[in-house]
Design brief:
This protein is mostly helical. The chain is 29% helix and 7% strand. The chain contains 4 helices and 2 strands. It is elongated, with a radius of gyration of 36 Å.
Length: 145
């Protein structure tokens, strides 16, 4: 192919400019910025707003000592002490909540708000969820320790 053949191909398939030696102007490829919508979640009211504590349907999850790092450490200590085995039935506590063989750390004597009894390690035992929800809750409802 000679130089004239290449020039001919360029003229046929190349850019169409009025002056073949002058480059074409680059098009403006920038897009206008889209406006982001205003956040809607921040303006929503909580269902607890405006209600006094006694008007709420139940206690909040964050109320009380059971949802603290201290309780989580103590719970793990008791489970390790008891060998991850239900102290009432002997079942291995290997399940994950809500499985019947998931571990629950239970107060042997109900603490009923007494924080000294709540944190007492000798008053805690590892039991299965099935035992705790059926047997132990039944015992406590009948008024036994």
């Amino acid at each position: 192919m000679g130089a004239t053949d290449i020039e001919q191909m360029y003229m046929t398939f190349g850019p169409k400019s009025p002056d073949k030696h002058k480059p074409l102007a680059q098009p403006d490829l920038t897009m206008p910025r889209l406006k982001s919508p205003k956040p809607r979640l921040g303006s929503m009211r909580s269902r607890w707003d405006g209600l006094a504590q006694h008007e709420r349907k139940g206690p909040r999850r964050s109320d009380g000592p059971i949802n603290t790092a201290r309780w989580q450490r103590l719970r793990l200590k008791i489970l390790n002490r008891d060998g991850w085995q239900c102290q009432a039935t002997g079942v291995a506590l290997v399940g994950r909540y809500p499985a019947p063989n998931s571990p629950v750390v239970d107060h042997i004597r109900a603490h009923r708000g007494d924080l000294d009894l709540f944190w007492d390690e000798d008053n805690l035992q590892a039991v299965s969820k099935a035992y705790h929800d059926r047997v132990k809750q039944g015992i406590e409802k009948r008024g036994r320790p």
